[in-house]
Design brief:
The chain starts with a helix and ends with a helix. It is mainly alpha-helical and about 170 residues long. It has one domain (about 1-170). About 95% of the residues lie in helices and about 0% in strands.
Length: about 170
């Protein structure tokens, strides 16, 4: 073999020294560097695996939260619709009650106005009747003053008052 190595221009001692150096470098790299690199790569692999698992869990949690939110929104929408329907119903009832009270109030005002009008009418009639009586009495007194005695005047005045009082009772 040495002839083959010498024909090729390879020195055996040098080849052995290079092989020993190569093995020494491999051993040093294996002992100090490769283990650390392999540990780093293994930790990195675990970290990536945990990250993927956490991402999957987060996706599942987000889906669950989305479903819960969707159900809650549906319930809130139903509740809001119920409140709206109740408010409309109460509003309608309150409107009817307000209209009813307004009508009752208007009817009360009309009745009071009619009563006041009737009272004023009766007052006016009474005042007119009294004025007519006074004027009739004064007129009759002037016309008849010379032809009747004092007693006749008193009797006629009393008759007139009785007659008018009787008329007042009939009305």
């Amino acid at each position: 073999m040495s002839e083959l190595f010498s024909n090729l221009g390879i020195d055996g001692k040098l080849l052995f020294a290079q092989a020993a150096n190569f093995l020494l470098v491999v051993w040093v790299l294996h002992r100090f560097v490769f283990k650390k690199i392999l540990l780093f790569l293994e930790e990195r692999k675990k970290g990536i695996k945990e990250g993927v698992e956490l991402t999957e869990k987060a996706k599942l949690e987000m889906e669950r939260i989305g479903e819960v939110r969707h159900r809650a929104m549906g319930k809130a929408k139903e509740l809001a619709e119920t409140f709206i329907i109740e408010a409309k119903t109460r509003g309608g009832e309150m409107e009817k009650e307000i209209v009813k009270k307004a009508r009752e109030g208007a009817e009360g005002i009309l009745i009071k106005a009619e009563q006041e009008s009737e009272r004023k009418k009766q007052d006016a009639l009474r005042d007119a009747k009294a004025e007519i009586q006074d004027r009739a009495f004064v007129l009759a007194e002037k016309v008849l003053m010379r032809s009747f005695s004092r007693e006749d005047e008193k009797r006629m005045g009393q008759d007139l008052v009785n007659e008018l009082t009787g008329d007042g009772k009939e009305n």
